[in-house]
Design goal:
With about 625 residues, the chain is of the alpha/beta class. It folds into three domains: about 20-100, Chitobiase, domain 2; about 105-430, TIM Barrel (Alpha-Beta Barrel); about 470-510 and about 545-620, Alpha-glucuronidase, C-terminal domain (Alpha-d-glucuronidase, C-terminal Domain, Alpha-Beta Complex), CATH 3.90.1330. The chain is built from 18 helices and 16 strands. The chain has helices at about 10-15, 25-40, 75-90, 140-150, 165-170, 180-190, 205, 220-235, 260-270, 300-305, 370-375, 415-430, 435-445, 450-470, 525-530, 540-545, 560-580, 590-620, and strands at about 45-50, 60-65, 65-70, 100, 105-110, 130, 135, 155-160, 195-200, 240-245, 280, 320-325, 345-350, 395-400, 505, 545-550. Strand 6 and strand 7 form a beta hairpin. Helix 4 crosses helix 6. About 55% of the residues are buried. Bound molecules: alpha-D-glucopyranuronic acid. Alpha-D-glucopyranuronic acid binds near residues 248 and 328. The site of alpha-D-glucopyranuronic acid has 9 residues, from loops.
């Protein structure tokens, strides 16, 4: 039987509710964590904590029954958590054991898309942990517990508010709200986590101080300089600001004739530089008012076109934040060609932990395999050119859009916490195999046979989700705005640049050199592969190519039959998940069991809907029946 009585993985190895230790330094927190660990797990022998040197790495050693944790001030905290995971996972390392570890990415960041009214953009786990009713409002204990949860997997920064900055959130950088931001920062600081604030590029205008946000004007520079002095007088260790500019109706430097993204980013960067801060500047810049009839514009090309030509123009403290794919967090996309392609500019890789397009924490979708595909992707931009090889260098940072909220289990779906865990693990160690991470998380959360069963469910889940939604890189087939459930034409005649262009004979967009030429944004060997319909990996076929339904795939089946089959398969697999989980009744905590069982039922219903809408849509268009004679359209 599982002996845990709540659903956070950190509590899994420290079952008592955490006391907020707001005033402690990370090293004192580390000491307290170890003391708790010893008490709760009745660990034999003693521990010794040594703070030496700088940095976030740590060394764990066991000698004559004594566990020694050494490292810099935050290093020992990560070491303490690592030891906790080790022991809670049931391991009993012998004397002589040593483990040396250091993080790959410098800044390992969680981005909250929380609004001041307490709602969360694309949030599926309750309301904001930080805001409600237009102001800052939180439980100190819960925030401490959250900081601790993040620190336990090595996260060292958190942006607390939405990248879409509305007027109420613009006030976060005013004397009204900065004292409360500072109080929040103090809680996170005790766990080695630094704050980031999302700010609008047009803050001076939003706050009523200037009539423009022209990056070339002395007024703008003065405003930002003074504002940064104010912000840092309250939060001296703020890691920086996060800015979504010229993106989905957010203001930006493009509004000013002749200005580019570097002009905007550098304006803020110069003001924050004396305080040691960074500007995380998002590259999600594209025309969101496209005419669907326009076949020249191709949204996946946009970020590269906007940023690649101005490599070298950015201030050293600008970090360009690039989504993992060129579109927008779809279940299968190629890796963004911008990643690693700007050797003279720091970048951050952005993942979406929250399940906007990946099941919204109703459907099970363990994302580490998707992220690992990105991290192990060989850009061929240099000899060691995997995205993971750039970690801490050209891609200095990594950010994940949070999947957490005030639900008691943090993530709504109890198993979605595996994604938060995996994000932290991959940010620390980007080549960790997703199966090992799943295994480790299951080891913390479950006992006995449940560990293996859940691990396999997690590992199968991404493919299952892909099978019944948009396989072969098709993308965009979701209900507009909500992004859950199928709507074949929902985005087809819209302005968002998101089309599959299915007709009675074929589907997909030709992005090869004879089409939009998107494939040419990759280094030559990759461009050649993607640009050739016969060599393109089939899982991305419809991303890069327009293919006829009758086209034969490697399996010998036609494209359309493959799509039909995958949808029948995916829906059946979703149904099977219910039984796989059902077998664990009594073997896992009752609350977790009920939570997951309820979501798996909804997932199976969603999968059926996807199967039938998808297959019916293509059957009606093509008139080609399923070879197996299954019922498609009634
Ligand atoms: C997606 C998402 C938006 C979000 C945007 C972003 O488009 O649907 O809600 O604001 O990404 O990353 O900025």
């Amino acid at each position: 039987m599982c002996d845990i009585n709540n659903t956070s993985f950190a509590d899994c190895w420290l079952p008592r509710a955490a006391q907020a230790r707001v005033s402690l330094s990370p090293q004192d927190t580390a000491r307290a964590e170890l003391a708790d660990l010893w008490q709760n797990l009745a660990v034999a022998g003693s521990f010794d904590l040594r703070v030496e040197g700088e940095g976030e790495g740590y060394l764990l050693e066991k000698q004559a029954g004594v566990w020694r944790v050494s490292g810099g001030a935050t290093g020992v905290l990560y070491g303490a958590h690592s030891l906790g995971f080790l022991l809670r996972g049931g391991e009993q390392p012998p004397d002589g054991f040593t483990l040396r570890s250091a993080p790959a990415f410098t800044h390992r960041i969680i981005n909250h898309w929380d609004n001041m009214d307490g709602t969360i953009e694309r949030g599926y786990a309750g309301r904001s942990l930080f805001f409600s009713g237009g102001g800052i409002s939180y439980s100190e204990e819960r925030i401490y517990h959250y900081a601790r949860l993040l620190a336990s997997v090595g996260v060292n920064a958190v942006a607390i508010n939405n990248v879409n900055v509305r007027p109420d959130a613009a006030r976060l950088i005013t004397p009204d709200l900065l004292p409360q931001v500072a109080a929040l920062a103090a809680i996170f600081r005790s766990c080695g986590v630094r704050l980031i604030l999302s700010v609008s590029y047009a803050s001076p205008v939003m706050l009523g101080d200037l009539t423009h946000a022209d990056p070339r004007s002395g007024e703008s520079a003065r405003w930002w300089g003074e504002r940064m002095n104010l912000i840092y007088s309250h939060v001296p260790d703020l890691l920086g600001v996060l800015i979504k500019a010229d993106s989905e109706n957010q203001p930006g430097p493009y509004q000013y004739d002749g200005c580019d993204q570097a002009d905007g980013a550098n304006l803020v960067a110069k003001a924050i530089a004396p305080h040691g801060g960074f500007v995380f500047w998002r590259c999600f810049v594209y025309n969101c008012k496209q005419d669907w009839r326009d076949r020249e514009t191709d949204r996946p090309k946009a970020a590269y076109e906007a940023f690649r030509p101005i490599d070298g123009k950015f201030a050293p403290n600008v970090v360009l934040q690039v989504k993992n794919g060129p579109y927008d967090f779809q279940i299968r996309e190629p890796v963004s060609p911008l990643l690693g392609a700007m050797p003279n500019t720091a970048q951050a890789l952005e993942f979406q932990i929250t399940g906007e397009y990946t099941g919204q924490q109703v459907d099970l979708c363990y994302l580490a395999p998707l992220w690992s595909d990105t991290l192990t992707f060989d850009t061929r931009l240099r000899e060691k050119g995997r995205v993971a090889d750039f970690a801490g260098g050209a891609v200095s940072s990594i950010a994940g859009v949070a999947n957490t909220g005030d639900d008691s289990n943090w993530c709504g779906h109890a198993l979605a916490a595996a994604n938060l865990f995996a994000f932290g693990r991959l940010a620390w160690s980007p080549l960790s195999p997703p199966e090992d991470i799943a295994g480790q998380w299951c080891g913390l959360m479950f006992n006995g046979e449940a560990r293996g069963v859940v691990q396999n469910m997690l590992l199968d889940s991404r493919r299952i989700y892909e099978n019944y939604t948009t396989p072969l890189g098709m993308c965009w087939f979701v209900t507009p705005h909500y992004h859950y459930g199928p709507d074949p034409l929902g985005y087809e005649f819209s302005k968002w640049g998101t089309y599959h262009r299915a007709d009675r004979r074929a589907v997909g967009i030709d992005r090869s050199p004879s089409g939009t030429g998107f494939s040419l944004q990759y280094a030559p060997p990759v461009a050649d592969l993607y640009g050739d319909i016969d060599r393109c990996p089939e899982e991305l076929l419809l991303f890069f190519h327009r293919a006829e339904y009758t086209r034969k795939l490697k399996s010998g089946k036609t494209l359309l039959q493959t799509l039909y089959d995958l949808h029948f398969l995916g829906a059946a697999q979703a149904e099977e998940l219910i039984a796989r989980w059902g077998a664990l009744e009594g073997a896992v905590d009752a609350e977790i069991f009920a939570n997951v069982a309820e979501r798996l039922r909804r997932q199976a219903e969603n999968a059926r809907q996807w199967r039938d809408v998808f297959n019916t849509f293509f059957f009606r268009l093509s008139g080609i029946p399923d070879e197996a004679g299954r019922v498609i359209s009634i």
